[in-house]
UniProtKB/TrEMBL annotation:
Residues 57-153 form the Methyltransferase domain. This is Methyltransferase domain-containing protein. It comes from the Bacteria. InterPro entries: Diverse_substrate_MTase, Methyltransf_25, SAM-dependent_MTases_sf. It holds the Pfam family Methyltransf_25. One of its GO terms (molecular function) is methyltransferase activity. Transmembrane segments: none annotated. Keywords: Methyltransferase, Transferase. One of its GO terms (biological process) is methylation. CDD domains: AdoMet_MTases.
Length: 230
C-alpha cells in the first residue's frame, strides 16, 4: 500500500470550494502544533542557530506563516520572507502577523505569482520548506531543488514526512481524537502516503544535481534534508 509515493490530491490542494473558512483556519493552526509535536520547529531552530545571526530566511510554502512568525521570536535579528502559492494562506499569514504577540517588523508575506522561484541568484541566505515537498510531483521536486539552490547563498532546509506504515497506522488512529479537523485527518493520511523513503530523497537530490547534502531521519517519522551551496 505504501510501496510508492501516492499521487492522490489533498483536499487543501483542491482549493477553497472544498472546505469551509473555519476548517482552513483551524487546520493551519493545528499544522503549527503538529510541526512542534513532530520536532520540525525546534529542529529548524537548531539548524538556524548554526548560521549567521542576521540571515535572510525565505520560507517557501509558508502556509499561515506561524512557523516563521514563531521563528522570528527566537531570531529577532534575522529577516523572514514567507511565500506561498495560496492567496488564502497569505491572507491568513498577514492576519496572524497583525495579531502576533511580539514584534513582527522583520517578517513579511507574499503570494507567489507562479509555483517557480523567480528570485535572483544568491538573493537569500537560507531557504526553508516545511511540509511542502510532499505536495509536489517528483519532477516538481527536482526543479524546486535546483531553483532553491540557485536562490540561496548558503543552504536549503527541507522538512518532510517519512512514508511509513506504522506512522500511517498511528496517525489514522489518533489524529481524529487529537486534532478534530477533517482536513488534518484526511489530508494528513494522504501526506504520509505522499511522503518519502530515504532512497527516494537521495535519488531526487542526485537527479537535481545536488552535490553537498545531508538526509537525516528524525524521530518520529520525519526527514530533515539540508542542501548546502558548497
Ligand atoms: C502542509 S502546508 C505547510 C505550511 C507550512 N509550511 C507549515 O509547515 O505549517 C503546505 C503549503 O505549501 C503550499 N504549496 C504547495 N505547493 C507549493 C509550491 N509549489 N510552491 C509554494 N507553495 C506551495 C500550500 O499552498 C500550503 O500552504
Amino acid at each position: 500500500m505504501l510501496s510508492h509515493r501516492s499521487n492522490e490530491k489533498e483536499i487543501l490542494d483542491l482549493g477553497p470550494g472544498n472546505y469551509t473558512a473555519e476548517e482552513f483556519t483551524h487546520c493551519q493552526k493545528m499544522l503549527y502544533r503538529i510541526n512542534k509535536i513532530l520536532g520540525f520547529f525546534h529542529g529548524t531552530v537548531n539548524v538556524l542557530k548554526k548560521g549567521g545571526e542576521k540571515a535572510h530566511v525565505m520560507d517557501v510554502g509558508c502556509g499561515a506563516g506561524l512557523f516563521i512568525l514563531n521563528l522570528s521570536r527566537y531570531f529577532p535579528k534575522m529577516t523572514f520572507h514567507g511565500i506561498d502559492i495560496s492567496s488564502e494562506a497569505i491572507d491568513m499569514a498577514n492576519h496572524e502577523k497583525s495579531v502576533f504577540a511580539s514584534d513582527t517588523s522583520n517578517v513579511k508575506f507574499e503570494k507567489m505569482a507562479e509555483p517557480n522561484l523567480t528570485f535572483g541568484e544568491n538573493s537569500v541566505d537560507v531557504i526553508l520548506a516545511t511540509m511542502v515537498c510532499h505536495h509536489m510531483s517528483n519532477e516538481e521536486i527536482i526543479e524546486f531543488f535546483k531553483q532553491a539552490l540557485h536562490t540561496t547563498k548558503d543552504k536549503v532546509i527541507i522538512n518532510d514526512l517519512h512514508r511509513n506504515i506504522i506512522a500511517y497506522g498511528f496517525y489514522r488512529l489518533f489524529s481524529p481524537i487529537l486534532f478534530r479537523n477533517r482536513l488534518i485527518t484526511y489530508d494528513g493520511l494522504i501526506s504520509i502516503k505522499r511522503g518519502f523513503i530515504r532512497q527516494e530523497l537521495i535519488t531526487l537530490l542526485e537527479q537535481a544535481g545536488m552535490k553537498h547534502y545531508q538526509v537525516k531521519w528524525c524521530f518520529p517519522f520525519r526527514w530533515r534534508v539540508i542542501i548546502w551551496k558548497k
